[in-house]
Amino acid sequence: MSSKPLVPAVEGWHTMTAKPHLIGTQCKGCGTYFFPKQSDYCRNPDCESTEFDEVELSRTGHIWSYTNACYKPPAPFVAHEPFVPYAIAAVQLETEQMVILGQVIGGLTVDELKVGMPMELVLEPLHETDNDIKVTWKWQPLAQ
To answer: Containing domain of residue 125, as a range?
Structure first.
């Protein structure tokens, strides 16, 4: 394995711990959660707050929907070459009850996913640069 440091592909979107969390915000006025972070105004039309707390979101949830991505995503996303289709899951977080769309771990296909399946957040390498290995968050079935 490479001795290069692991760094987030997008700074500030997730923790880099063994049990990672997405980093979001919660409106101080109405309690609505946001990911990615919201800091300017609350998008809840019934709330006029502009104050937010940064929070670690639930790292587990259940599949709300899923699909496969059969196209190479545009820049700035860095896709592996040759491009291989991958699965995407919309996961409803346990506590916040918000739905977060994200890639599923490599090697898992849509044939192996089911609505309601418990999932957890993990980190996987995205690509390697001359200086480091960029990692991103993905969903994987929760070990039962």
So the answer is: 59-141
